[in-house]
Amino acid sequence: MRISARADYAVRAALQLAASQDGGPLKAEAIAEAQDIPHKFLESILNDMRRGGLVLSQRGVNGGYRLARDAGSISIADVIRVVEGPLVSVRGVRPPELSYTGPAESLLPLWIALRSNVREILEGVSLADVASGRLPAGVAALTDAPKAWINP
Predict the structure, then answer these.
(1) What is the CATH number of the domain that holds 99?
(2) pTM of the model
(3) Nearest to 39 by CA among 30, 48, 26, 51
(4) How many domains does the chain have?
(5) Bridge partners of residue 26, in order along the sequence
(6) C-alpha 23: how far from its chain's center?
């Protein structure tokens, strides 16, 4: 699975907003600087997040962006879906819409299993979890496997 720069930047921007949820709105420039994200690219991402109902924008001197709801109620999956679409697709098609024949027939259940596991992790982790540094136990346990940190 590949996480695009757009998805990575969106999650990082949302985490920056989650970390400052008690304060006022954050300007895009401040988010871009804090997370080392190209400003113009971030503006496009924030607009997608606004249209997707994850952030609110406020114009004016005291304007900026803030989360549309509590960080504990926004999953990492929510953020990725708003800027990228489905979490798992094969050639741009969702797994249930695929069909294979012959020896490739069992690829479909494999893609469905992959989608199920990706969903379980990304839907089960909120912005508040990541911003606080406390991942859910099941997710944290996955990082304990010695091979988790090694590229084959």
Answers:
(1) 1.10.10.10
(2) 0.91
(3) 30
(4) 1
(5) 65
(6) 22
Query: For the segment 9-44, what is each residue's pLDDT rounded down to a tens digit?
Result: 999 999 999 998 777 899 999 999 999 999 999 999
Which residue is it, tokens 């907003």? Answer: 17
CB 97 within 8 Å of CB 89: no
Rounded Cα gap, residues 110 and 124, in angstroms:
21
Number of neighbours of residue 38 by Cβ within 10 angstroms: 12
Asked whether the beta carbons of 5 and 121 are under 8 A apart, the reply is: no
| Domain hosting residue 135, numbered range | 5-149
The DSSP H or E segment spanning 58 is strand 55-58
Model pLDDT, residue 61: 80
